[in-house]
Structures are given as C-alpha cells and as structure tokens.
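Allow me, if you will, to draw on your knowledge of protein folds for a short while. I have a record of one protein: its chain in single-letter code and its fold written as discrete structure tokens. I should value your view on which stretches of the chain appear to form regular backbone elements. Thank you for your consideration; the sequence and its tokens are set out here:
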Amino acid sequence: MNDVTYNMAAGQFHPGIDFKDPILGSTSNVVSLWQDQFGTLPNDNDATTVAAAAVVITGLQKFGTKLANLSIEERRTTIRYAIGSVNEETVCGVVAFNRFGQNTGGLPVTWQVLEDGRTVPVLPASAAPATLRVPAPTW
C-alpha cells in the first residue's frame, strides 16, 4: 500500500462529500438510493447523470414555462434558457453556467489515499470531511 499512500485524484464526485441535491436531498441519500437499486456505489458517471437530471428538472421548475403549447424551436429555447439560469448545489457540487454555457459553479472533488487504503475527500476544504496531508509523511 505504501506505493499509493497519500496520492491524490480528482473528479466531479466522491460519495464521501455530502453536497445538497435539489431533487434527492443530499449525496448520502443519492448513495443510499443507488446502493439499494444497483448494489454498488455510484461512480463519477452515475453521479454526473444524477446531477444533470437535477439541473434539467430544477431549471424547468424554476425558470421554464409550460412546454406543451410551444413549437419545437420554442421548447429548445425555453429549455436552454432554463438550464442556463440554474445556480444549484448538486451531488457534484454547484452547477452554474457562464454566458458561454460553461459550468463555472463548482470545484472538482479531490481525494487522498490514506494509510488504511481508504480514499477520503480533502478538497474543496469547505465541503471535505478530511484535511489534506501535505507534505505527506515520509515512507
């Protein structure tokens, strides 16, 4: 284990950071529901799919209009503006878009491998349950 101890990696999601979610409540609730349904922890792709659904649903609930009587082009425009107006915390952190449609809302989650082999989130510091170990202890 010494070869990887204190190494770090980053991604959009780690089940150890408990962000709020506007649809399912929190990361811990999403993880629990996912484990009940599929028998595994959600991975980065799974979590970003949950976050994307939350963004679409939240955007349409807060900023959309009824789509049924709109043309296809009007629907596309309404959905695009609704999603672009979102500024919400999801299981992948805050999602907010700039004028170019880029997500500028949140920082990636960074985790570190500990001596016992667990990976624990260490950044962003405002949400991480553990502290980054720098410099790492010597082997």
